[in-house]
Amino acid sequence: MARQRDYSINQLKRTIEGGGIGVIANGPNTSDMCDFLGHVGFDAAFIDFEHGGVSWGELSDITRACELWGMSSVVRVNRLDEAQILRTLDQGASAVMIPHVITVEDAKAAAQACKYPPKGTRGVAGSRRAYGVTDYFRKSDDQAQCIALIEDYEAIDNLSELTKVDGIDIFYVAPSDMAASMGHTGDPEHPEVQTALERAINLVIQGGGIAGTLANDSNLDKFISMGVRCVGVPWQAWVKNSAEKFIERTRLD
Question: Is residue 208 scored above 70 in pLDDT?
């Protein structure tokens, strides 16, 4: 008799829907690293197809490692492309993060690419997450998340309309690309950029959307107080800071 199993729950989605704040571990996340991060307690690991060195051949193993710990996998594709989003989800991603969502048309295309017909346009195939799962297509539609990256200054004025688009689970406001789009490349802390980020976050929340952004120890409380419900944190910064402090203790005057 063929064995059956449950569809893997999207922990990031569950945390947010339960009223909590979803935490994504950003970094060079290989399958081994995700296996380590899983027991720390992160809701999700970030896998980067836009700037990172991950290959398609590695992606299934990375998402499997996340699933071993009940941790979600958030994969950033390098562009809004239906075929690429399809392949990412079929390789086991829990969520797809899509760059440069600027217009309502962008948001609709992104959302529809993450859902099977009749809700969307995702091509129908039995991916590895379908093995042994009954009612797979409905469960996949229910669990897969679409995360729109708001990283262009021109997108801010469209947010009131973007938040009305069905199927965008998180509007993730990205500081570095936002800074670049404003002529402040490499300076996301510039006051003009910080004002734009805060305006974008407030517009998402006012429109009834879930706001996300990149956070660190110094600004986390501010974002939580604003109502941000999803934060990404670069874990390598913690390693660097702790390592520097440790090394400093070994240096004799």
Answer: yes
Q: Where are the alpha helices (DSSP H) in 10-135?
A: 11-17, 31-38, 56-68, 82-90, 104-113
The topology under which CATH files domain 11-250 is: TIM Barrel (3.20.20)
User: Which one of 51, 100, 184, 190 is the catalytic residue?
Assistant: 51
Alpha helices in 23-174 (DSSP H): 31-38, 56-68, 82-90, 104-113, 136-143, 153-156, 159-162
Instruction: Note if 51 is an active site residue.
Output: yes
Amino acid 253: pLDDT: 67
Q: Average pLDDT, stretch 96-122?
A: 97
Q: Mean pLDDT across the stretch 48-53? A: 89
Report the b/e string of 221-235 with b at 16+ CB within 10 A. Answer: eebeeeebbbbbbeb
| pLDDT, averaged across the chain | 95
